[in-house]
Fold this sequence. Notes:
Largest sheet: 5 strands, mixed
Strand content: 35-45%
Number of domains: 1
Radius of gyration: 13 Å
Number of helices: 2
Order of helices and strands: EEEHHEE
Structural class: mainly beta
Amino acid sequence: xxxxxxxxxxxxxxxxxxxxxxxxxxxxxxxxxxxxxxxxxxxxxxxxxxxxxxxxxxxxxxxxxxxxxxxxxxxxxxxxx
Length: 81
């Protein structure tokens, strides 16, 4: 499995929006008005394009809510969890 780019969707309090940031560079790849706008209907998939990536989604309090992989076919098959 190739290493997917890693991103985090986090609340930007100062600009009252949700930013999708590259974990390695810290640069914002996309911004959304609400978290629902970012997570509905394949919006993150559209932003990440063919390259895809792993996205950690945070709650407003900064704790992690979930992690998603785009495209889904890049998801790990199993883990020793």
